Structure to design on (151 residues):
């Protein structure tokens, strides 16, 4: 009788061990890092441009943009943003983000403003970053967008 009870306990412990083992193998050891949002990628890109870290900013471009724009071409295209950052300061804030809807397609964008424009009714210029799709996490386009004149 003693042997039978021991076997029952060993069997129960084995099932418990097996169950725990299966749970641990399917449970991730560390939580997977979430992919950065488009706003985070756009901010990282603009901060790199404003700081003059062209190589870091270039790496955040989408492959099709890199194919169209050499590193030297990128440096020339990024120069107006860099110069504006030198004039206004490199601290930026999110101004707006959304999707521009065109006749045939739509394009996600993030627009930032310089912190020096915070007190203004609208920013003097926007730092614009566009993406190829809602799922894209690489920069497709960028530029300075002057605010329209007040009515």
């Amino acid at each position: 009788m003693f042997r039978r009870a021991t076997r029952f306990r060993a069997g129960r412990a084995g099932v418990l061990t097996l169950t725990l083992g299966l749970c641990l193998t399917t449970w991730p050891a560390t939580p997977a890092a979430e992919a950065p949002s488009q706003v985070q990628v756009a901010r990282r890109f603009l901060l790199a441009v404003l700081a003059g870290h062209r190589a870091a900013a270039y790496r955040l471009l989408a492959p099709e943009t890199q194919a169209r724009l050499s590193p030297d071409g990128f440096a020339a295209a990024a120069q107006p943003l860099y110069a504006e950052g030198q004039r206004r300061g490199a601290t930026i804030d999110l101004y707006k983000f959304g999707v521009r809807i065109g006749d045939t397609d739509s394009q996600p964008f993030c627009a930032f403003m310089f912190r020096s424009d915070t007190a203004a009714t609208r920013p003097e210029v926007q730092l614009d970053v566009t993406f190829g799709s809602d799922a894209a996490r690489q920069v497709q386009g960028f530029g300075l967008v002057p605010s329209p004149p007040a009515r």
Notes: The first helix runs from residue 2 to 26. Residues 15-25 have pLDDT under 50 and may be disordered.
